[in-house]
Amino acid sequence: MSNNRFNRDGYLPVSPMRFMDPLSIFDEFRGGITDRFFENAFQGFAAKTDLYRKDGKIFVEAELPGVNPDDVDLHVYSDRITLSAEKKSETNDNSNDKSYFRSERSWGKIERVLSFPVEADPETAKASFKNGVLVVEVAEKSQDKAHKKLTISKD
């Protein structure tokens, strides 16, 4: 074997700790080159979101940098919220004159559906948009606290 990474029997030496993660052996072959490519190239335009509860309300915060609020379509249901938005390309007719060295900016359409952990009241929903962050606030539906204790009959 001409490659000095292989032992004299032709096997790639692998430490016993390596077997804890069976896919980690592929790290030897990619050498870190593809890491940055996959991290950046396939991110595309995606709305990163936070979903949390505060003071009896459900909050959804979505990052939508470069999106015009008029290009956002938002629907709130009792069990979910649907969000679709479009970030338009900022290229113009003279874009053929450009010779890019690097282009990392993304554009396109995004659609997200987030399920609420509790039932919400869509009639109370409010939305605001500031600095590229969409904030949706919706009250939780109040649950009737009355209950009935059941006695199990024995036959």
What's the helix and strand layout?
Elements: H1 26-30, H2 33-41, E1 49-54, E2 57-63, E3 72-76, E4 80-87, E5 108-115, E6 126-130, E7 133-139
Antiparallel strand pairs: 1-2, 2-7, 3-4, 4-5, 6-7
Give a short summary of the structure.
With 155 residues, this protein is mostly beta strands. It has helices at residues 26-30, 33-41, and strands at 49-54, 57-63, 72-76, 80-87, 108-115, 126-130, 133-139.
Descriptive account of the structure:
The structure is a single chain. The protein has helices at residues 26-30, 33-41, and strands at residues 49-54, 57-63, 72-76, 80-87, 108-115, 126-130, 133-139. Strand 3 (72-76) and strand 4 (80-87) form a beta hairpin. The chain has 155 residues and is mainly beta. 9% of the residues lie in helices and 30% in strands. It has a four-stranded antiparallel sheet with strand order 1-2-7-6, with no helix packed on it. It is flat. The chain has two helices and seven strands. 9% of the residues are buried. The chain has two domains: 1-42, no CATH class; 49-91 and 104-139, Immunoglobulin-like, CATH 2.60.40.
Please indicate the percent range of residues in DSSP E strands (runs of 2 or more): 25-35%
The CATH first-level class of the largest domain comes to: Mainly Beta
Portion in helices: under 10%
Task: Note the main sheet.
Answer: 4 strands, antiparallel
Radius of gyration: 26 Å
**What topology, given as strand order, has the largest sheet?**
1-2-7-6
Rounded mean pLDDT score? 76
Figure out the total of helices. Answer: 2
Number of strands: 7
Structural class: mainly beta
* CATH-level-2 architecture of the largest domain: Sandwich
Oligomer: single chain
Overall tally of domains: 2
| Helix-strand string | HHEEEEEEE
The third-level CATH topology of the largest domain is Immunoglobulin-like
